[in-house]
Amino acid sequence: MFSIAFYYVNKVCGWLMAVSMTGYGNSKLKSADLSVMVEMKSVNHRFSEFQIRMPRQLMKIEDKIRKKLASYIKRGRVEVFITIEGKGLVQRTLQPDWQLIDEFVHLVKEAAAKYSMPETVEWTEVLSRPDFIEVAEKEEENETINELILEAVGLAAEQLYAMRQAEGEELKKDLSLLLSEMEKGLSNVKALAPSVVEAYRERLERRMQELASSAVDKDRLEAEAAIFAEKSDIHEECVRLESHIQQFRRTLELDEPIGRKLDFLIQEMNREANTIGSKANDSKISSSVVELKTSLEKMKEQVQNIE
């Protein structure tokens, strides 16, 4: 009940949210002659895929069923089970083969005349033979029945989508927390970055003093430090990573399928984190990068379930 209400409130208010790809929905509708039961569940998938199991008689409206599902689900594999009970969908009639029965009766009369036997036909035996009579099914072309089936599919899809929305909102909260952790880790990296070059300069000066008895060549020292500073400069990577984090937050608020966009941003953030770790050449920054990558791994796992 809560999930359906959640769906309609979101429709009316226009809330922006991430949508999960896993969910479940069901519905049951009845008419005078028919009962329709629909169950559906969805799981992660790269694209939109509907697997519909239903009575053969519904094949003529399968395209309408798929369009109904597509109006709720943009991505994910959805299994749909449609069960029909009652006599409203198919009309059964008895179809006798009169030509064959006529030939049988004529044969009985000929045999009676030829062998001086009474012309007796056991009609209960005749009508029980599948050669003489069969049960035929005639599909009812009833638009009311079709509308009932499509309505049941729509109700189940609404329930499934509402569950996907609710789970998506939880995923969004988790991702927002992980983004905050990344922002904290990136701040640590930016704070440590200036000291990396200075620490290298001090190490280089000590090394040069150990190798030479004379005074340290200040020009050479500054040149070596400048080269190291250029090679280990992570300012651009930090700016790009910060930009990706902000873009990730904005994408979470879009009212459209965002799973692929988020996955791409995670790849880009992971690339920048790797570059920072390799360029900085500092144990403290490396430790912060490990934390960044741990958060990214958790985010990647969560994003796999977002539509």
TrEMBL record:
InterPro entries: YicC-like_C, YicC-like_N, YicC/YloC-like
Protein's organism: Bacillus thermotolerans
A Pfam family the protein falls into: YicC-like_N
Cofactor: a divalent metal cation
Signal sequence, renumbered to the chain: none
UniProt-recorded Gene Ontology molecular function terms: hydrolase activity; RNA endonuclease activity
Keywords: Endonuclease, Hydrolase, Nuclease
Endoribonuclease YicC-like N-terminal domain ranges (all copies): 20-173
Family the UniProt entry places it in: Belongs to the YicC/YloC family.
Top-level division of the source organism's lineage: Bacteria
Protein name according to UniProt: Protein YicC
Domain Endoribonuclease YicC-like C-terminal: 189-307
